[in-house]
Structure to design on (448 residues):
């Protein structure tokens, strides 16, 4: 009986134990990270967790990704703790300030959150102003000093006194209080000026400080789908997907019907768009432009003969949608717009040049010869500039593919490549062979 009582007591204490989630934020903060943070917070809420501890060690990353994470943390109903395990620089500082409590290891650092462009230069006043007030409002929400938060972003600010917990404090040990210097705080400084709540050398020491000595620790990690999103939104991978997408579409425009290049190009574009939408890089308006463009191009290629206004309009929508994908969902200056346009033009030029080289390589390959002219005669076999199809003039054939205006027909158990006299002819329609000029076979739809 005593043993049963002990077991029941053990199970009861286990069920009533506090649960703490540990969520790592390491390396570069990219657009694949916010979905992981949101999932971890939702899971912690669903499991009635006591707190979520963000184990932070980062030099920063994308501002738009950091603002998404900040919004998720501020709206969380679970207690959030930032454990700065060495450093929280730039975007990492914004994430840390959004948490209810901040603890740091010895030798830790927080700050230097000014916005920079892709070349590492300081952003425009519009961008700096956005980031400065984003940091200030987040600090205000958590009861931390707004002047210090602003000084982490804008080096033109300066001060000598701060009001902390209704007391006036003279500041003489922060280099960033001077004009021309950004604020970065060591662990001691962050605790002194109430940016951090305390010091903890290990995660166990942090739990002791928070009063969670007997808490159950649950480690959160990126799952396979989030890994895929982070992989696909990696700048290098995303640019490759875009390039191959354009290559596939451009190559498909050079050939009749719909084949492997179009399928590969469409797949690359869908992967890029899907990952961008999940990571909130692509907005709904971007998606509308992109899918409208794809729909118009497919309509032109599969339904409407030739390549005219509809196809050009679709290409225009598609290109504009890709340009919008290069712009972050935060205020940007003129230099970011110029960089986005430069990147867009370079990608487009690269795709076009790649398509030209790919076509030249393809048409010289044995595979291409077998695909387009499987019975081509070689010179040593007795060269002839005709396939001997002159005897088929006047015969009736059946379209094996759509003809717009070229395609394949079946006639007398032969499958030959033809050109329509009158434009588009649907698959399955009967045609009459009008003439044969070398290897060029001209047909007309048979009207009954």
């Amino acid at each position: 009986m005593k043993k049963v009582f002990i077991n029941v007591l053990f199970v009861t204490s286990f069920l009533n134990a506090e649960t703490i989630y540990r969520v790592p934020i390491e390396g570069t903060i990219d657009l694949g990270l916010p979905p992981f943070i949101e999932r971890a917070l939702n899971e912690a809420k669903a499991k009635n967790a006591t707190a979520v501890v963000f184990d932070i060690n980062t030099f920063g990353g994308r501002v738009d990704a950091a603002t998404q994470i900040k919004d998720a943390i501020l709206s969380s109903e679970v207690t959030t703790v930032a454990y700065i395990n060495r450093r929280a620089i730039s975007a990492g500082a914004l994430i840390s300030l959004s948490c209810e409590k901040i603890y740091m290891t010895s030798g830790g650092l927080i700050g230097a959150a000014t916005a920079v462009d892709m070349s590492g230069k300081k952003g425009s006043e519009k961008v700096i102003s956005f980031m400065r007030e984003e940091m200030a409002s987040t600090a205000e929400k958590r009861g931390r000093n707004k002047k210090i938060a602003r000084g982490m972003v804008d080096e033109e600010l300066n001060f000598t006194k701060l009001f902390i917990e209704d007391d006036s404090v003279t500041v003489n040990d922060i280099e960033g209080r001077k004009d021309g210097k950004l604020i970065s705080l060591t662990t001691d400084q962050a605790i002194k000026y109430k940016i951090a709540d305390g010091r903890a050398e290990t995660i166990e020491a942090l739990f002791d400080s928070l009063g969670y000595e007997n808490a159950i620790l649950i480690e959160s990690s990126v799952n396979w789908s989030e890994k895929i999103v982070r992989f696909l939104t990696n700048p290098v991978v995303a640019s490759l997907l875009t390039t191959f997408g354009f290559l596939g579409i451009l190559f498909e425009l050079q050939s009749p019907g719909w084949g492997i290049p179009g399928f590969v190009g469409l797949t690359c574009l869908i992967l890029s768009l899907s990952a961008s939408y999940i990571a909130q890089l692509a907005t709904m308006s971007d998606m509308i432009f992109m899918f409208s463009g794809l729909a118009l191009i497919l309509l032109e290629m599969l339904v409407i003969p030739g390549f005219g206004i509809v196809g050009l309009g679709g290409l225009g929508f598609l290109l504009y949608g890709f340009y919008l994908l290069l712009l972050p969902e935060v205020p940007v200056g003129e230099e970011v717009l110029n960089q986005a346009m430069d990147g867009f033009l370079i990608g487009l030029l690269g795709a076009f040049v790649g398509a030209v080289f790919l076509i030249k390589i393809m048409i010289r390959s044995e595979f291409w010869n077998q695909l387009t002219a499987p019975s081509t005669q070689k010179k040593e076999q007795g060269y002839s500039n005709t396939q001997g199809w002159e005897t088929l003039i006047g015969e009736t054939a059946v379209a094996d593919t759509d003809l717009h205006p070229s395609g394949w027909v079946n006639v007398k158990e032969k499958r030959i490549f033809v050109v329509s006299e009158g434009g588009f002819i649907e698959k399955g329609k009967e045609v009459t062979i009008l003439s044969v000029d070398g290897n060029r076979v001209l047909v007309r739809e048979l009207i009954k």
Notes: The chain has three domains: 2-222, 225-363, 378-445. The chain is about 45% helix and 20% strand.
